[in-house]
Amino acid sequence: MSDSDSRKRTMEPLITEAIAKRVQSILMKIRSAEEKAGRSVGTVRLVAVTKTVTVEHIAEGVRAGLSVLGENRVQEALPKIAAFTQMPVHWHFIGQLQRRKVRSVIGPFDLIHSMDSLELAQEIDRRAGEAGRRQNVLLEVNIGKEPTKAGFHPDDVVRSIPLMAHLSHTCIKGLMTIPPPTADPDSARPYFRKLRDLARQISALDLPTVRMDELSMGMSNDYEVAIEEGATLVRIGTAIFGARHV
Ligand SMILES: *Cc1c(COP(=O)(O)O)cnc(C)c1O
Fold first, then answer.
1. By CB count within 10 A, which of 39, 55, 108, 191 is most buried?
2. CB 23 within 8 A of CB 42
3. Radius of gyration of the chain (CA)
4. In angstroms, what is the span from residue 13 Cα to ligand 1's centroid?
5. Which of 19, 29, 72 for mutating ligand 1's site (highest number of atoms within 8 Å of CB)?
6. How many other CB atoms are there within 10 angstroms of residue 133's CB atom?
7. Does residue 94 have its Cβ closer than 6 Å to ligand 1?
8. For residue 73, what is the domain's CATH number?
9. Tally: H helices and E strands in the chain
10. At a CB cut-off of 8 Å and minimum separation 6, what does 195 contact?
11. What domain count does the chain have?
């Protein structure tokens, strides 16, 4: 059976199965992955990735237990956030963030997963300061050193972090990565491990304003492996809402 066959077979039923069922099943799989890894229950949070998903379908997921939602485009996210102000949900920004859009994400988003350069860090800090806030962020690391991908180069991140430690309106909470695409989830494991090692090295610097509490890694295809390697935030879209067509 080829790879694409096995993918089709696991993805097909998702289209007909209810969103609520998939949410329940993923929450259970997260719990068992925590247990299997010898981690305490509740140490991993599900970030449901809602890009391209309608407000109605998102609401179905929220009623089924989703509480953290991830979006990667500012324009698409803001009206959705406005539609959910009465619901107990938190929004995370997970996409590439242009500097001119920074002002719009300060406030609506509790956590920015994708701080990918020093320049962006400075802009976030400046805009958060203007808004009288302290913005929680993760540093995105281009763990596979892919030329087309955003993020700090893994060899630079430990050196760059002290340059951000003085930012007074930014709270660095951890690291995020999107590993290179792999045929099977286990091939992503070395990348997840590498991100965890980087977080350890950064922790050892003992910078007062930098914490390494969060590791945002793992998506629909590989979140269980990511949890075994220490993920605290898994970003899952397709496995909840079905394949995206745009
Ligand atoms: C779309 C997206 C995801 C979710 O991917 P799935 O494979 O659909 O689970 C996770 N992280 C980021 C940054 C994304 O853009």
1. 191
2. no
3. 18
4. 19
5. 72
6. 13
7. yes
8. 3.20.20.10
9. 10, 8
10. 141, 143, 175, 177, 215, 217
11. 1
Atom number, ligand 1, closest to the C-alpha of residue 223? 9
Assigned domain for 41 exists? yes
Do residues 93 and 71 touch, judged by C-beta distance below 8 A?
Answer: yes
Q: Which domain holds residue 125?
A: 3-241
User: Atom 7 in ligand 1: which residue has the minimum CA distance?
Assistant: 220
Measure 245 CA to ligand 1 centroid, in angstroms.
14
Buried-exposed string 109-124: b where 16+ CB fall within 10 A, e elsewhere? bebbbbbbbeebbbbb
Q: Going residue by residue through the chain (246 aa), what tens digit of pLDDT does each one get?
A: 445 555 555 544 444 458 999 999 999 999 999 999 999 999 999 999 999 999 999 999 999 999 999 999 999 999 999 999 999 999 999 999 999 999 999 999 999 999 999 999 999 999 999 999 999 999 999 999 999 999 999 999 999 999 999 999 999 999 999 999 998 999 999 999 999 999 999 999 999 889 999 999 999 999 999 999 999 999 999 999 998 876
CA distances from 187 to 17, 190, 193 (A): 29, 7, 11
CA of 208 to the centre of ligand 1 (A): 31
Q: How many CA atoms lie within 13 A of 152 on its CB side?
A: 27
In a domain, 135, yes or no: yes
First CA to last CA distance, the chain: 27
Give yes or no for a contact between 215 and 231, defined as CB atoms under 8 angstroms apart. yes
Residue 246 within a domain: no
